[in-house]
């Protein structure tokens, strides 16, 4: 440490030197004035007077010498005393200086002093260390030598403040040092000159970087502790010593209620002691545990917590505390369960859906593979479900499905599964049947039959007592011989067979069905080619009146398959409907029929009326009317020659839409025929509302005429009803003269059937027409 030199005090002052001289002068003057007069008064004898005067002179010398001695002695003594005191003062000053230097240099704080211009007057060892500059270099220099320019304004500002306010102040100053950025707690105070004027300042700077960091960490920790998660801090013995607000919110316990207790206050009672045993074992071994846990709130309600417990170890390595952090994941779990339910269960019946069923089938296949026991899939479809839905509304249909699900579940074993694939399709998965195919088939049949009977019992759907039947298809499996998807398909095919065989029955899948299935899928892919490769044709079947005159024809679609030859529509129209191909096909039929009508017209041989079949899917298209209009416009056909055939089920499907479209088409001049009349659930109410022109008696009622009494009555009734409604009646499928005679007798007006002509290609039909024209 360096410091400035003090001026030594003066030893003798002028007044102290004058005093003995004055004393001597006064004594001598008094002696001269009064001693001679006294001696002359006392001694008149001259000799005596001379002697006494001599002695008086000697006495004066002796006295003055003594006086002088005393005075000089005293003066010297005083000077010695003064010198000693000065020496002592100097010593004390040097000691103080050394003390100050020692304090400064041994202090862990950086100590410095600056003059009013900021130049260093004092620079301690610690100051030199942290700045990396020797005191000798720094003294006389200012802070620009030590710190980057950016940091200087703050330091100088603080210095100025201290000097201006003339008082000691404390600042936090962040400066760059050899230890990096350091935060100093700087106490700075003014230095004064002998007149008490501020002549600079001193500073004591303490490095508080670590403390600041700690404070920051504590601040962050405090914020973290007050997070969204419930937090609790316990002692090693489990006693809760701190909780956060989220803890109180999640558990309902305030700090006052929780502190001093253990987390056992949250125990739900849902976990075995072994659960906690394993948990604590892991915490002690690994210092950490994370997992799900049921907890109980203060109000008794339960919640699932996602909990993390961390052990805090002291410096001695022993656990001092535990920190627990948890969040309430109950709603998360519920949402997951809901997602799972939506993904794997049918929302209406709560039965497993197709996806879950497929999983279960795969598991069942694996089980069967191991056990070598058969299992079975029963595919079930409610008969005529669509009619119920259409006529009574979806809510009644839904009720039936829910009731069906309940009945199915009641008739299977716990280990079996019931699933709903959608619509009115259900699947039962039976496991662990017999080990021989025969035994398994008997068991599966028993279950299927039981179910068929159970479903045949009447359903009470609100007000409605409903009699349902079901068609069931059964496919057996053993091990992994078939995939889940194939098995489902087999059972579906068998069910389809049950439907074809008259419904309300059950069928086993057999390989010949499989062949049919494969053929079907082959046909499907071929059908995609049919349109593109011009393989479709329209055939025309004549329609006659009672006078045996040709009054029109029905356009019937044929598919000229390159390998199979002529494929009848019964084989491919349902397929086309399933695949959606019916839309382009139907459009082609319409266009082709219109083109043909126009061609006949142009040839001067106009056909009175051409009936065209329209499928439900085609008719339901929103732009169906526009399609017909376009076909008429592009061909130039006369709309009055075009008749559209609709079926009962189509009309029933959406009466309002049907009515709307029929009216629009009728305005164009098109007429309508109701095909297959009598086969569906006819409703007289709608018949009167629709702008129909013709009723076609289905050929199934014609086939056994005139012998079948029932069919005869039906045919008669239809004719009477149609006549009553002002509609023309056409009998379809007339094959014999007897049939025609019977129908004619009962006032049927028109006929179509093999008796007159089969459906013919256009050229042959033209020939036929010429024959009829020739016969007139
Ligand atoms: N046993 C017997 N059958 C007779 C007799 N007279 C006519 N038939 C057949 O009866 C069916 C009458 O047609 P449909 O009832 O409209 O029934 C049609 C119709 O629903 C549908 N279809 C035909 N062409 C088309 C079409 O272009 N579009 C649509 N959507 N469906 C069509 O395919 C069904 C079957 O058509 P086809 O096989 O041509 O069968 C035709 C016809 O060949 C007879 O005396 N005895």
Automatic annotation (TrEMBL):
Superkingdom per UniProt: Bacteria
InterPro entries: Biofilm_reg_signaling, Diguanyl_cyclase/Pdiesterase, EAL_dom, EAL_sf, GGDEF_dom, Nucleotide_cyclase, PAC, PAS
Xref: SUPFAM superfamilies: EAL domain-like, Nucleotide cyclase, PYP-like sensor domain (PAS domain)
Signal peptide (from-to): none
PROSITE patterns tied to this protein: EAL, GGDEF, PAC, PAS
Domain PAS per the UniProt entry, residue ranges: 96-141, 216-262
Gene3D superfamilies named among the record's database cross-references: 3.30.70.270, EAL domain, PAS domain
PAC domain mapped to chain residues: 169-220, 289-341
Residue ranges of every copy of the GGDEF domain listed in the record: 373-511
Residue span(s) of domain EAL: 520-773
Transmembrane segments: 21-43, 55-76
CDD domains the record matches: EAL, GGDEF, PAS
Keywords: Membrane, Transmembrane, Transmembrane helix
Name this polypeptide is given: EAL domain-containing protein
